[in-house]
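User: Fold this; tokens only.

Assistant: Input:
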Amino acid sequence: MAKHRYYYYDSESCSFVELKSRRRRLQMQVAGVVSIAVVLALGLTWGMDHVVETPQELALRAENQALQDQLAQFDRRISSVSTELEKLSEKDQELYRSLFQADPISEDVRQMGVGGTDAYASFSRFSPSASRLLRNTAEGLDRLERQVGFQSESYRELTRFATDYETQLDEMPIMIPSEGRVISGFGMRYHPILKVRRMHYGVDINVNTGTPVVAAGDGVVLEAKRGNGYGNYVKIKHETAGYVTLYAHLRNFKSGLKAGQRVSRGDLIAYSGNTGLSKSPHLHYEVRDLDGRALNPVFFLAPSLTPAAYQKILEEAENTTVIFD
């Protein structure tokens, strides 16, 4: 037996519609509403999981931000200190090394340890911002450590130069070794005993027998003996300065003076005389470099004399043509 069919009048379509079609449409509407509700519920759950954070997560996020801020501050301070070290390095190159006549440090040496494999690759596993910050800070610390080590070694070297320079100044033969007038200078002169013109490798200072003779600069006594035409003579080596001084025609040496003894500028070493190939009492004084080349002693005397006194000695040395030895 067939089921009863029921109809209702649909005013919108102006026709009769079977009742079960309306029920189906209602069911579809209900199903749509339920689907929408499910989607909204899922979306809300996802949003709660990804937007709403727990107190622990909020604390970790704040801590991470504080650490990044601190690292950024360290990076700025490292850069500032590195810049100051660069300024010191420039002053080192331009001033101190020029002052002590030291060779400049090459850029290759300054950049020693830079390059090679990436020492900071391990930071790449972090977020781009954190990785960049960690890399910059690590590179800055490495650069700072390298600069500090380099500059410390440079200053140690300059300290050695300064010590040598001070020693060199003390050893320079700038003092007149005996009080008297320069009666014969450096150059070709007529020898009064040999009766020939020959090179005079020093200067003659007119002093009476027994006049004190002092070291012209700090040094070590090489020889204190009698020999050749010099008669009694003393040689002093000024090694750091690079010179040897000779004092000849001496009457006698200071008591106890011997080779290897260290003397200071102004120390008594002997007394003037007339020994050896000498015409009359005087002091013959020479300055040579460490290779034995003779130098004009007058040129070394300028720092210890007034301009007028130095000019007078120059004139006395140049205006004489006879030597006493």
